[in-house]
Design goal:
binds adenosine-5'-triphosphate; single chain; Rossmann fold; binds magnesium ion; 8 strands; 250 residues; 8-stranded mixed sheet; globular; alpha/beta; 10 helices; 42% helix
């Protein structure tokens, strides 16, 4: 099992990168099993992958809190584990798990422990697990998601966003995340911004593994609500993501 997480500031292109990474794995690692995890509270990876999602981890956990929710003969723990299984969206090619938005107030610690165990067991069934995170790295810093082999920090081609990538790196260091490889990808590049940004990039301490150009086809697919995973081979973003991932030992 190889777990690859994507992180970065809001709107930089994390979900686009995640969808194109799954596209890459499907095309280049035939026969391998893939679990895509949407760990962003404002989930939309499913749209990029062209999937409908009924249940998320959060809605399932909320269900278990309803009065009389737990069937007689089941412990709360057993029931939660049982419900968590319903959050998995299965397709012929890959599976998707959406963490969702924790609506409930109060302590989330108890489900977090169960969630951690659930994910640890679940991920053993897959060759690749990809995780689309929100900027704050909530699930990673609370160790709900652990053992990340590779963290790809995404930034767009602005100095502010690169500084944000630097803060993601700081979080990784400060919570002592055990991440084996750490990379920076700069997206929505239109010209020679990298030259201009080199100073900021150096300060992040992250290794720039590649860039993704601003691709009108990505914008067009988004406007038309078409799944990004269906972008054609000649899309500039697809080609760039493929080139980046072929450099990494996946
Ligand atoms: N390479 C690209 N070329 C053109 N447009 C892009 C590219 N990458 C991302 N975008 C556009 O930028 C916007 C944000 O992209 P995306 O949803 O992938 O970012 P995100 O980091 O996942 O955002 P959020 O933080 O809201 O989850 C979208 O409108 C998307 O179409
Ligand atoms: Mg996103």
């Amino acid at each position: 099992m190889k777990q690859i997480a994507i992180a970065g500031k809001g709107g930089v292109g994390k979900t686009t990168f995640s969808a194109l990474m799954i596209r890459y794995l499907l095309k280049n690692k035939p026969g391998k099993s893939i679990l895509a995890v949407d760990a962003d509270a404002n989930a939309n990876l499913n749209e990029a992958l062209g999937l409908e999602v009924e249940n998320t981890i959060s809605t399932m956990l909320e269900d278990t809190k309803k009065p009389n929710a737990i069937p007689t003969g089941m412990t709360k723990e057993m029931y939660i584990e049982f419900k968590l299984q319903d959050a998995l969206v299965e397709t012929n090619n890959f599976d998707l798990l959406v963490m969702g938005n924790p609506q409930g107030s109060g302590c989330y610690c108890y489900p977090n422990d169960l969630l951690r165990k659930h994910l640890e067991t679940l991920r053993k069934n897959y060759d690749y697990v990809t995780v689309d995170n929100e900027a704050g790295l909530e699930h990673l810093s609370r160790r709900v998601i652990s053992d990340v082999d590779m963290l790809i920090v995404v930034s767009d081609a602005s100095a502010r966003s690169i500084r944000s990538a630097s803060r993601v790196h700081d979080i990784v260091k400060s919570v002592n995340l055990d991440v084996k490889e750490l990379y920076l990808v700069v997206t929505k590049v239109t010209g020679n911004e990298i030259e201009e940004l080199q100073g900021e990039i150096d300060k992040t301490g992250l290794r720039l593994i590649g860039t993704v150009p601003l691709d009108p086809m990505v914008a067009e697919f988004d406007v038309k609500s078409k799944a990004l995973i269906d972008l054609p081979d000649d899309s500039a973003a697809v080609q760039a993501v493929n080139a980046i991932l072929s450099k990494i030992n996946l």
